[in-house]
Write a structure and sequence with these properties.
168 residues, mainly alpha
Length: 168
């Protein structure tokens, strides 16, 4: 009887583990297909998508900080333009024309150039956001533009932390 109970408990535990793994695989597949809805031609870089989402979060949080601290509308308009540009970059990165399948190597080159252009646009927007955050700190130190998107996001994250501490 005890042996039968152990076998049943083991089977139930293994079945629960199997269900968890299947759920996880389904969830990842769903997110993958959802992200590639308009870009079936090539696989989107998840790291770049995370950069875009992080940039959008930082812009949103910056808007909240400026809204609480400063009544000047000009910085809020600049942040709104940055948020619009980030949305444009995201849609441009995710969407590819189905006609590109027929073009072969030319399409591959086109996609690579588009990805490079999106990365440059994202870097420009993150440097703009960083300079805006730097202006808000009223420091004498000169602002230096970052050369990579990852570095710009990390710098903006640090600037946001400092500003949040000052405000709180």
């Amino acid at each position: 009887m005890k042996k039968l109970l152990k076998i049943v408990l083991r089977d139930v535990a293994l079945f629960a583990l199997l269900l968890t793994l299947v759920r996880f695989a389904f969830k990842r597949t769903y997110h993958f297909l959802n992200a590639h809805e308009k870009s079936i031609i090539h696989e989107l870089d998840r790291t770049f998508l995370e950069y875009i989402y992080t940039a959008q979060k930082q812009a949103h949080y910056t808007m909240i900080l400026f809204d609480d601290v400063d009544n000047d509308q000009e910085p809020l308009q600049r942040i709104t333009r940055i948020k619009e540009q980030l949305t444009h970059i995201e849609s441009k990165y995710k969407k590819n024309s189905p006609v590109l399948v027929l073009l072969g190597p030319i399409a591959t080159t086109s996609i690579i150039l588009k990805e490079k252009q999106c990365a440059d646009m994202l870097l420009k927007q993150m440097n703009t956001l960083g300079s805006l955050l730097h202006e808000m700190q009223d420091e004498v130190v000169l602002f230096e533009h970052s050369n990579t998107v990852g570095a710009a996001l990390a710098r903006n994250k640090d600037l946001l932390k400092v500003l949040r501490r000052r405000i709180a």
